[in-house]
Amino acid sequence: MNVKEFKDIMQLTVFVNTTGDYCVRKFKESPHNYLIVDNYGDFLIIEASQIDNVCSVIWNDMHSNKNKQHLLPQLIN
């Protein structure tokens, strides 16, 4: 989905910050879910109650993959 098709979503949120190709916004109304929009206008809504879980999964996956990548040359030799 593209945020251009859902312009009213932007009006329901406030700007939090940008990082790289992403803009992070938060919904004004409780429970203050998050809206993440990339430079193409594609977006994702993450429930506020799930932010910690989602970030933990990504963080753990990122670090476990780094560890696996470091082991790969040892396994090949």
Describe the structure.
This protein is of the alpha+beta class and 77 residues long. The protein folds into 2 domains: 1-46, no CATH class; 49-77. 40% of the residues lie in helices and 29% in strands. The protein has 2 helices and 4 strands. The protein has helices spanning 7-11, 51-76; strands at residues 13-19, 22-27, 34-38, 43-46. The protein has a 4-stranded antiparallel beta sheet. The longest helix has 26 residues, at 51-76. It is globular and about 45 Å long. The model has no long low-confidence stretch (mean pLDDT 86).
Number of strands: 4
Order of strands, widest sheet: 1-2-3-4
* Strand-residue proportion: 25-35%
Structural class: alpha+beta
Query: How confident overall, as mean pLDDT?
Result: 86
Can you tell me the residue ranges where pLDDT is under 50 for at least 5 consecutive residues? Answer: none
> Largest sheet, described in full?
4 strands, antiparallel
Secondary-structure element series: HEEEEH
Gross morphology: globular
Specify Rg, calculated over alpha carbons: 17 Å
Helix content: 40-55%
Distance between the termini: 45 Å
Number of domains: 2
